[in-house]
Amino acid sequence: MAVDVYHHAFLNRDRLIHILDPDPRTCEALSVLLRLEGFQTAFSVEVLGFFSAIERRPPDAAIVNFDAGDAEGLAVLRRLKLMRLAMPAFMIGDAPDVARAVSAMKAGASDVFTKPIDNDQLLAAVQDALHRHVHTAALAGGGRQVEIRGFAELTPREREVLQLISNGQSNKQAGRELGISPRTIEVHRARVMEKLGARNTADLLRIVLLRDDQPSAR
């Protein structure tokens, strides 16, 4: 285990992660967490400072609060995309919000987390995103090949539930539209996540978006 920790820290030593959150305590806590994994970190509590900093040194990844102080986090995410920095960006929220999570994933977020943040899940997501980013960038011609399994195993009802979840509807809203209880929606969603190998709702949305990005069979 000690060898694995050292190995990760060695690989991360030149990688910079920039955190944007209006709460300095959150910035400091995430910085400590990431530095223990060997990452370099920087943080900002307001958007102007964030963009000034990344213009001087573009980070390898960014962690952005939905409520980014003087601007909306989704606007920050969209601006990052327009800057074509080609880096993973993670969104964090002070409270669960499925609709905003859906919007973030569609805008290109790598993952979405809600406070209190599960440190192990965040670190695993950052490591995975950086790993995938390196391999994706290495593909010839800039193309990417994504194999998504499990969709063929979904029942018609599970596909309906997946579509409604992807549209940002809550269990209650989806149940009302399909004429079934929110609890039944939750059961269907759990089965969908199991079949697609999704760990959480954000992961599920990413899988759906990757599938939508694939060229149609000819």
Rg, Cα atoms, Å:
18 Å
User: Tally of extended strands?
Assistant: 5
Q: What fraction of the residues are assigned to beta strands by DSSP?
A: 5-15%
Whole-number tally of structural domains: 2
**Adjacency order of strands in the biggest sheet:** 2-1-3-4-5
Query: Helix count, per DSSP?
Result: 10
Q: Point out poorly predicted stretches.
A: 1-10, 134-147
Average per-residue pLDDT, rounded, comes to: 79
Corresponding CATH superfamily of the largest domain: Response regulator
* SS-based class: alpha/beta
Summarize the amount of helix as a percent range.
40-55%
* CATH fold-level topology of the largest domain: Rossmann fold
Spell out the key features of this protein.
single chain, 218 residues, alpha/beta, Rossmann fold, Arc Repressor Mutant, subunit A, 2 domains, five-stranded parallel sheet, elongated
Give an overview of the whole structure.
This protein is of the alpha/beta class and 218 residues long. The protein has two domains: 2-142, 3-Layer(aba) Sandwich (Rossmann fold), CATH 3.40.50; 151-210, Winged helix-like DNA-binding domain superfamily/Winged helix DNA-binding domain (Arc Repressor Mutant, subunit A, Orthogonal Bundle). It has ten helices and five strands; from the N terminus they run αβαβαβαβαβααααα. The protein has helices at 2-12, 24-36, 47-56, 73-82, 98-106, 119-137, 156-166, 171-178, 182-196, 201-213; strands at 16-20, 40-44, 61-65, 89-93, 111-114. α7 (156-166) packs across α9 and α8 crosses α9. The longest helix is centred in the middle third of the chain and has 19 residues, at 119-137. The model is unreliable at 1-10 and 134-147 (pLDDT under 50).
